Amino acid sequence: MALDLVPVWTTLLALAVFHYVVFDGFDLGVGILHGFVPENARAIVMNSVAPIWNGNATWLVFGGLGLLAAFPLAFVLIMLLALVFRGVAFEFRFRNPELRRFCVRAFFYGSAIATFAQGVVLGTFIQGFKVDGRHFTGTSFDWVTPFALLTGIALMFGYSLLGASWLILKTEGDLQRWARRAGRVCLIAVLVAIVAVSIWTPISNAEIARRWFTWPDIAFLAPVPIITALIAAGEWYALTRQQELTPFLGAVGLFSMSFIGIAISLWPMIVPFHYTLWQAASSASTQAFLLIGTLFLLPVILMYTAWSYWVFRGKVHGEVGYH
Amino acid sequence: MTLDAVFLSRLQWAWVIVWHILLPAFTVGLASYIAVLEGLYFFTGREMWFRISGFWTKIFAVSFGMGVVSGIIMPFQFGTNWSRFTDATADVLSPMMAYEGLMAFFLESTFLGVLLFGRRLVPAWAHFFAGLMVAFGTLLSSFWILSTNSWMQTPAGYKLVDGRFEPVDWLAIVFNPSFPYRLLHNVTAFYITTAFVVMGVGAWLLRRDRAVEDSRMMIRMALNLLIILIPLQIVIGDLHGLNTLEHQPAKIAAMEGLYDTAQPMPLTLFGIPDDEAATMRYPIEIPNLGSLILTHSWDGAVKGLKEWPANERAPVALPFFSFRIMVGIGFVMLFIAVAGQILQLRGRLWDSIWFLRLCPWAAPLGFIAVIAGWVVTEVGRQPWTVYGLMRTADSVSPSLTGADVALSLAFYIVVYLIMFPTGIAFMAGLVRRGPQPQAASERVESGLPSGPFKGATRTASDS
């Protein structure tokens, strides 16, 4: 009997995408905040992600590739170039002050644009895009919709919230206080965006509205907004008090609830409203071949990744002190 | 002039991959070299190994970072430019590339962090282990990506259903006929490329009386590796060629510029190929040598391109000339390695100014040979993406317009012309500073963070 591996793969891929969002999310967020921190703290901010950003970016290949492959060239180009500039700016830390200033700017703009682009992908994905057979047929500028622009900006604040809470964890003193303030600003913006998206999608799409607001589904799904609200309150509390790890966990919590919310709205579509997961999935043999290795490799990867985070635990100190 | 989406997409692919391949060509060998140095340091505790390793690790980090960013760009083109190819082959090729990511990318990037910044944070054995894992990761990456490429050259283990390739036998897919030869040929080429860079840098430093002990060791290690690997590479290359003759005879015909089937086949040293007239102009030939090399017999027959219809022939000029460049460089390399080895045996290596002057000029040779070899194999595969089964012209995304690709290609050209020269200049700066005399207890300055982490003080006693 052929085992249906699609649900297994869907779970794995969803986890990979989520992992990417959280991990590259906080280091893209750190990149965005980097443009706003006082100049003398920039080195510390960059150092807080130095040993791990390569690994984080790698998840894009695994988690993001499938989704982005469906998008038009011009769009993908923008995001890739932003990521390239960011990565390169990170690698080349010139002693020459002029080049250094350029790199600082490239790191900020690269992070910001890449994040915005991913937010737009998310928005377009939720709204659905045109396909013909198995090929994307929209034009290069289909993605410029108000909704996609909203999700683009929302994700910038979302990643910045993750970045700020990462900085709270990795720094101390004035920089940490600065990160708490930045985190609160981002949290407010993120909550506004979550509310806006939650109102916008059911209004513009009857199918999604039916899923959320018909009895008895509404009873089962009610915990989603309630838990989200509780986490948001907890996050605010954590950002204002002396908590160090909680803000990060809270931010991850908010992301998971949004993720679950989107999954509920779209399930079981992979190319929303055109293809289900089963129609888009590759052949059973392909899935089985990859699954065997993945089930073995994934725990190993998570183990050594965790080990490297353990190695680089603790606060970051720059040679340049922060005053 | 019309903008042809197929041609421009090919150009874009070539542009992006030619720059990218420079990085693995260097980092695969360098990662193994660093692992060896780390091992020597771990077992002997000699300061010198630590200095040399620290020096190359910094350079490795920069090239690896560039490899990651230029590498992320490539797979996206499957979706943007080659969606019909991707759709047709996804069931076969996507798990192979997924395995590359799962096995190699995470391993490399995670342990590179430890290798770079963890010297004082982890025990010495764990640091050595991190070096080994980075090297192992680069080799796994080569394994999967070359298996993927080989499958496109010599597809196996599939069945065609409605124009899409479906996997039947995974072992046959992964270990397809040309894969073992291609893997050996490439990895050996990467090691040789790195050895020439190490030797060139060592000679450059030595000529300026910098880090004399370290530079001499670099040159010696490189020479000892090269004298084994270059002859070995010639043998592997020959075997790879025979394998190609068996599975892709049209490619061999293009490489040799052979339009008419010949028995015995002469070896054309040089000539101007003319695809229109299907003839080689102004050929300089050595009789029978072609048969001897390709069939290992004095008068074996080799098929010419005219055996295939005109629309199934690869353009001759690029593979023909590239192949001559690659082989030519191979023999120049052999000469340098043998000359260096003789000087070393006579104990005159350090007095031979001409040799030390020559080495830095020879440093880029490996890169040129790798690119030339890649052009031979990829252009030689044309007009197919999956050899004999799927045409390049049928592989591009249907909605793609020439103007779209022209725009993205222009972007990539500008970005790469900024990124790569800057990166190379940056690495040259690192080379110029040379290996730094450092106490082993000091942390390795990686060029990235200016400060270690608090945990540093806790475990410092281990290093």
Which class best fits the helix and strand makeup of chain A?
Answer: mainly alpha
**CATH level 1 name of the largest domain in chain A:** Mainly Alpha
Number of H/I helices of chain B: 14
Write the CATH fold name of the largest domain in chain A. Answer: Formate dehydrogenase/DMSO reductase fold
- Order of helical and strand elements of chain B: HHHHEEHHHHEEHHHHEEHH
Report the average pLDDT across residues of chain B.
83
> Quick one: which chains have the greatest interface?
A-B, 65 and 72 residues
Average of per-residue pLDDT values of chain A: 74
> What level of helicity do the residues of chain B show?
55-70%
Query: Strand order, biggest sheet of chain B?
Result: 1-2
* pLDDT < 50 stretches of chain B: 439-463
Largest sheet of chain A, if any? 2 strands, antiparallel
Q: What structural class do you assign from the helix and strand content of chain B?
A: mainly alpha
Summarize the structure in words.
- The complex is a heterodimer of chains A (323) and B (463).
- Chain A is mainly alpha-helical and 323 residues long.
- Chain A folds into 2 domains: 276 residues, Up-down Bundle (Formate dehydrogenase/DMSO reductase fold); 32 residues.
- Chain A is built from 13 helices and 4 strands.
- Chain A has a two-stranded antiparallel sheet with strand order 1-2.
- In chain A, helix 5 packs across helix 6.
- The longest helix of chain A has 32 residues.
- Chain A is globular, with a radius of gyration of 20 Å.
- The C terminus of chain A is likely disordered.
- Chain B is mainly alpha-helical and 463 residues long.
- Chain B has 2 domains: 200 residues, no CATH class; 190 residues, no CATH class.
- Chain B contains 14 helices and 6 strands.
- In chain B, strands 1-2 form a two-stranded antiparallel ribbon. Chain B has a two-stranded antiparallel ribbon with strand order 3-4.
- The longest helix of chain B is centred in the N-terminal third of the chain and has 40 residues.
